[in-house]
Specification:
49% helix, 13 strands, 506 residues
């Protein structure tokens, strides 16, 4: 049996004469071309969106933006690789009309248009809203660590600096001992390293020690807990099963209808404790709804931020982490005490009342202190408190009712908290593994934020193309464009006619 055979390399072939014929009608590159052409790049703040009368003509920012959108959508983010695509990829040749910018031009476009790239992502999000692709009822919020351009060996904490300085001092002391031994040794005795070589090692260590001491001084004079040398804005973070790595903490809020990202953010804070309210409020503004449900994992449990969400008509569904030391010891926790809002008191397991005795500031929050004198002779004392002198005390935050209402909601609608994983973890999996966007190429939080905006843009674009199809989406885009032009015409034409009539009268 013979193998499937190819054609002879010297055989003449008849290829289509037009580049247009190489790109199918349902190719996503056609939507990229149509979508970018609808954007007002001058209003979005792109460089060279308006050319000057003199000087060398620049590349049109629309062409470079199309190249980047195509690249990010097809796992090609490097400026050098994008340059290669302009020479050998027929889709890119069609998209750029055979323009071939060099990698430096491509890289500078991304570096110099960080704000513009963010706005393009937001424009596509608003397009999804106009196409009714957002449900606007439930969003899931989550964060994930994306690797920065900074190796962990180039990041220093206070403890790491202290350890390294101690190790250097020990090595220097060892080398000095070896120098003394080599000087005292007779010429007939062979030594592993000469005193001259040992002194060179000592000089190198002393130089490295001076550099580390300077870093230690800089770190002590700042409010930071660590310092990174390659990318100063990146931080060493725990990345779950993979240990620690230098990363950025990426935040997204995903709508439950089609798993589209509503809003996103990027921070160098290692945890998610302060991200709930900013993300939920931003999602509510984008969706333009009066009320919104938001769910997140335990890492977002922040009572102050939950209360802020409630003030903005955002109902939270966040599981409460168990932080009580009493539970680990087998003692009663605060949840075993029932609060009576009418009498403003707590009922303990022994059916005694804990009344409000005073107020204090605990954890920067106004807190009431509840206690009872019945603890002294209580039969359940050993199961309730470890204090030998005072009895059990309950601390109640003034806005604790917000948390209690959230507990009731989660008890009535447990499915909303359960939906979190299937809503928000899918985009992260797609971005990191399906699209290979789990690491950044730029440095500095401003540039990295723009880079992630591009990732969010192409993720949403990929989802929408799968939902609606290329032809349907282009038709909807053109229909909206014609509607806007028609609306502007109704505004402009009467003014022109009025001006003409006035001119004729005069």
């Amino acid at each position: 049996m013979s193998y499937i055979q190819g054609i002879e390399r010297n055989q003449s072939l008849l290829f289509p004469e037009l580049v247009e014929d190489y790109v199918e009608e349902n190719n996503s590159v056609r939507f990229i071309d149509a979508y970018v052409d609808t954007l007002d790049l001058r209003e979005l703040g792109f460089t060279h969106a308006q050319t000057t009368a003199t000087g060398r003509p620049p590349y049109c920012p629309a062409d470079l933006l199309k190249l980047y959108v195509y690249g990010y959508l097809n796992k090609v983010r490097s400026s050098r690789l994008l340059e290669q695509q302009t020479h050998r990829n027929i889709e890119v040749m069609w998209l750029l009309r055979k323009l071939q910018p060099d990698f430096k031009t491509i890289a500078d476009f991304r570096k110099n248009n960080t704000e513009g790239l963010k706005k393009v992502c937001r424009e596509f999000t608003l397009l999804c809203k106009k196409l009714n692709l957002f449900g606007g009822e439930l969003v899931a919020i989550d964060g994930s660590k994306f690797n920065a351009v900074n190796h962990d060996s180039r990041t220093y904490t206070k403890k790491k600096l202290q350890r390294l300085l101690k190790e250097i001092d020990e090595k220097i002391e060892t080398y000095f001992g070896q120098v003394d031994s080599a000087d005292m040794a007779e010429s007939t005795v062979a030594v592993r390293e000469t005193p001259h070589v040992l002194r060179e090692h000592i000089a190198q260590l002393q130089k490295h020690k001076a550099e580390l001491e300077e870093l230690q001084k800089t770190l002590n004079n700042s409010n930071e807990t660590q310092i990174s040398l390659t990318d100063p804005d990146s931080r060493l973070m725990t990345t779950g099963k993979h240990g620690n790595d230098v990363c950025y903490n990426v935040q997204i809020a995903v709508d439950s209808k089609y798993k589209l990202i509503v809003t996103h953010d990027l921070t160098n804070e290692a945890n998610d404790l302060h991200q709930l309210y900013p993300m939920a409020q931003s999602a509510k503004e984008v969706l333009g709804v009066e009320h919104l449900d938001a769910t997140a994992d335990k890492g977002y449990y922040n009572e102050t931020q939950i209360a802020q969400c409630e003030q903005e008509n955002i109902s939270c569904y966040i599981p409460e982490p168990e932080k009580s030391q009493n539970k680990a010891l087998g003692l009663y926790t605060d949840r075993d005490f029932r609060y009576d809002a009418t009498s403003d008191c707590y009922i303990c397991p022994a059916n005694e009342q804990l009344t409000k005795r005073s107020e204090t500031i605990k954890g920067k929050k106004q807190t009431g202190v509840y206690a009872t004198s019945a603890c002294k002779g209580c039969r359940l004392r050993s199961q309730c408190t470890r204090s030998k002198r005072s009895g059990r005390r309950i601390y109640r935050w003034v806005n604790k009712h917000v948390i209690e209402e959230m507990r009731k909601r989660m008890a009535h609608y447990p499915e909303k908290a359960r939906q979190r994983k299937e809503i928000v973890e899918h985009p992260f999996g797609t971005l990191k593994h399906g699209m290979n966007h789990g690491y950044f190429l730029l440095r500095g939080i401003k540039k990295v934020a723009a880079e992630f905006s591009m990732s969010v843009l192409v993720y949403n674009m990929k989802r929408v193309l799968n939902i609606m199809g290329v032809a349907t989406l282009i038709a909807a885009l053109r229909a909206m464009t014609m509607t806007i032009l028609s609306f502007l015409a109704h505004l402009v034409i009467p003014r022109i006619q009025f001006a003409n009539r006035r001119y004729l009268v005069n």
